[in-house]
Fold this sequence. Notes:
Strand content: 5-15%
Largest sheet: 6 strands, parallel
Mean pLDDT: 94
Low-confidence stretches: none
Bound molecules: uridine-5'-diphosphate-xylopyranose
Number of helices: 17
Radius of gyration: 24 Å
Strand order of the largest sheet: 3-2-1-4-5-6
Shape: globular
Number of strands: 14
Distance between the termini: 62 Å
Structural class: alpha/beta
Amino acid sequence: MFTMNKNIVCIGAGYIGGPTMAVIAKMNPDRKVYVCDINAQRIAAWNSKDYELPIFEPGLVDVVKEVRGKNLFFTTDIRSAVRKCDIVFVGVNTPTKMFGRGAGRASDLQFWEATAREIKEWAKGDKIVVEKSTLPVRTAAAMEAILNGGTGNGERGKQFRFTVLSNPEFLAEGTAIKDLLDPDRVLIGGPDTPEGREAVGEICDIYAGKDGRWVDRAKILTTNVWSAELTKLAANAFLAQRVSSINAIAGLCEATGADVDEVARVIGADRRIGPKFLKAGPGFGGSCFKKDVLNLVYLCESFGLHTAAEYWSGVIKMNDHQQERIVSRLFKEMFNTLANKKIAMFGFAFKADTGDTRETPAGYVARLLNEEHVRLSITDPKAIENGRRDLAGLDGVTWEKDPYKAAKDADAVLLMTDWKEYPALDWARIFKSMRKPALVFDTRNCLDAASLRETGFKVLNIGK
Ligand code: UDX
Ligand code: UDX
């Protein structure tokens, strides 16, 4: 039986671990929550006096202010945190594997396996181990085997029991706190055994919150472990597929004179389809979509389901094509030569309200433009630091906090991220400072194209 001490530790203080544990601590003031990371700099940032947290997420600072030092603790001391807690969440990163078998498609599970071994080494009692990272289907079985395998696990060679559950996180960056406080659903997968059911119940209690203040029990869905693991991949693949589908229609709109925003509005009014994830743009980015779709492709292939693998590959192919199309259109519009022209890129984050640049379409487009010897001046309200790191070593790229400075003497503004700041800029001032003819390519269709044209700009949009 598990002891009554139901404190929680999460290994991995990233985009998932940090916000999730902060909200778990807020909603469960009677439990202690520890968040560990091997990256000492990251932990120091989480602990910083002036709340210079390592990630930007609206509303996060307020939650951290409320609970840090009370029942939420950030530490590099994994060993003592694991000892103090009965419930271990694992939220370490699982990037796409870049070597050997499954390179470019499968997940690199080395951090995750090292973490499992560490938990086993430091444990002093039974633990519930909860997967938070998105992992390929059936990895929980491997974790179970590592944790429960062999004789005498645990620090003193005693045999402890580890029950492995899957609890995928569905939060989206930029709305993480809102998504956590009011989720559509919480998913907990566990084995259909007495211990499994008991462990699932324990995790349900966490999400229900102290005195039932958090997630409605009806929204906490339980499944077997494999269904939970596959659901996360499938849910992200479905969302990514909607983005690729509307982007595939966007090209056709440009060719025919239809307007993709109008088409999306009408498609989305069908309640069977719904209005979300139908915004055409530069394609999806972020840490999950591409990785999870590639994982799904790899899984399908491993089970001999080649047609299904090809089907899901198309979602990625369409996404890459969308970014190549942006550069081709710029090229054509700018008289088939981009060399030495200055392009101001407005926005580098993969979407608004985050500083995250993982798999950002802007990064891919920036590299393509760099090959054409463009002088690129990039601005972003939150992502300059990450962007600089991503594009380190590329000549001809400068970073500019102030969008007006970025646009000065530019031949074109290429808007890549739908930050709400951008429509509010003084576009007449920008126009005056640019070389003529001055072009704006709004890949998010978020600016007022008619008024830009009135100002004198040549305007390009996606899907119109
Ligand atoms: C998300 C998803 O949860 C995951 O499935 C996906 O693979 C990557 O993106 P996220 O929280 O955004 O995870 O990742 P990241 O911000 O990179 O955080 C992971 C943290 O784990 C890092 O801070 C890293 O230092 C830490 N880590 C990694 C450990 O503490 N131990 C390790 O062994 C490896
Ligand atoms: C996604 C899932 O939404 C979330 O449930 C999962 O836990 C992690 O992956 P995230 O990557 O943070 O979250 O962002 P999301 O809002 O889903 O956007 C992903 C990408 O798709 C962004 O680049 C966004 O700009 C793009 N997108 C989204 C579109 O181009 N059009 C849309 O209509 C919606």
